[in-house]
Design brief:
There is one protein chain. The protein has 347 residues and is an alpha/beta fold. The protein has a single domain, classed as Metal-dependent hydrolases (TIM Barrel, Alpha-Beta Barrel). The protein is 34% helix and 17% strand. The two termini are 23 Å apart. The structure holds (4S)-2,6-dioxohexahydropyrimidine-4-carboxylic acid and zinc ion (ZN). (4S)-2,6-dioxohexahydropyrimidine-4-carboxylic acid (DOR) binds next to loops.
């Protein structure tokens, strides 16, 4: 078995970079692996306009490590009040890759999210006309729906009808977590794809409770069953171009996760490709990692595949217990203090 794995340079199609000191602290991890990333707009306040996205983009570009050519692909946060004209402005900007739909209250900083998707129908119609992509956080938020059933209910009640109502709208179902979601994407019309995170490929919900409550395994959508996990591994490693890489790496300061109301989000940017490589190797599909990481995303977003390559070496290493996250804050990364089997070879 080869000890080196070289891939076309990949992209991360779903990423949280935060802002300010945290942005400066976490961006180098992503920029060393990925050429581009779709940057989520759930800042406080959220990035709701092309102007705000342009300013955020400038801050990201300024925070790049010296010599980095990393390119942020910006998203706008869809609200009940987004005017259809914002779609035209965004499309004309050349730096906005899509609009992100958070159901109100679904996750971190989603209070301004959409309360009723039908209120956004005129915006979605304009997006379909201009070929602008909708990125969807696919969970209903009703209190009476079990937290583990919220993705399935979203498919049945919201996403299924939505893609029929807007037959030309291009949609990425973000961070899918269930076999139902993988089946939905496979059975959907053209123009529907999904991203899959490393944590949903590597962990099931038992890991949230292994010997005690484990806040660093808490993310949204929450980890699901072993059967769901295996269905996601099957989808990711199948070579089906509708499934591609999106880490959802979401840094939170340690004290905000180790807390009586801990934040949702797992941090994987320090070792994203290495984590995915373990999944693909264990599935006997290392030869399909490049499609998932480097081909299918740009093809869906109608962007060129990256020039250049990255190389992983089969070499055991341990991520530290924590990385700096600005000021006195630290972030606990996935696999902290544990072992990883692959390591990115520094260029
Ligand atoms: O776990 C999550 N963290 N899920 C999300 O949807 C948001 C993210 C964050 O911003 O922390
Ligand atoms: Zn996310």
């Amino acid at each position: 078995m080869s000890d080196l794995l070289t891939l076309r340079r990949p992209d991360d199609w779903h990423l949280h970079l935060r802002d300010g000191a945290a942005l400066a602290a976490v961006l180098p991890h992503t920029a060393r692996q990925f050429a581009r990333a779709i940057v989520m707009p759930n800042l406080k306040p959220p990035v709701t306009t092309t102007r705000l996205a342009g300013e955020y983009r400038d801050r990201i570009l300024a925070a790049r490590p010296a010599g980095s050519d990393f390119q942020p692909l910006m998203t706008l946060y869809l609200t009940d009040n987004t005017p259809p004209s914002e779609v035209d402005t965004a499309a004309a900007s050349g730096f906005v890759a899509g609009f992100k739909m958070y159901p109100a209250g679904a996750t971190t900083n989603s209070d301004s999210g959409v309360t009723d998707l039908r209120r956004t129908d005129a915006v979605l119609a304009r997006m379909a006309e201009l070929g602008v992509v909708l990125q969807v956080h696919g969970e209903v938020t009703h209190d009476h729906v079990d937290v583990f059933d919220r993705e399935q209910r979203f498919i049945d009640d919201i996403l299924g009808p939505l893609v029929e109502r807007h037959p030309r709208l291009r949609v990425v179902f973000e961070h899918i977590t269930t076999s139902a979601a993988a089946d939905f994407v496979r059975g959907a019309r053209d123009g529907i794809a999904a991203t899959i995170t490393p944590q949903h490929l590597l962990h099931n919900r038992n890991d949230l409770f292994r010997g005690g409550i484990r806040p660093h395994f808490y993310c949204l959508p929450v980890l699901k069953t072993q059967q769901d996990r295996l269905a996601l591994v099957e989808a990711a490693t199948s070579g089906d171009p509708r499934f591609f890489l999106g880490t959802d790496s979401a840094p939170h300061a340690r004290h905000t996760k180790e807390n009586d109301c801990g934040c949702a989000g797992m941090y994987s940017a320090h070792a994203a490709l290495e984590l995915y490589a373990e999944v693909f190797e264990d599935a006997g599909a290392l030869h399909r990692l490049e499609g998932f990481a480097s081909h299918f995303g740009p093809d869906f977003y109608r962007l060129p595949r990256n020039p250049g390559t990255v190389t992983l070496a089969r070499r055991e290493w341990s991520p530290p217990a924590a990385y700096p996250m600005g000021g006195s804050d630290v972030v606990v990364p996935m696999r902290a203090g544990g072992k990883l089997r692959w390591q990115l070879v520094e260029a």
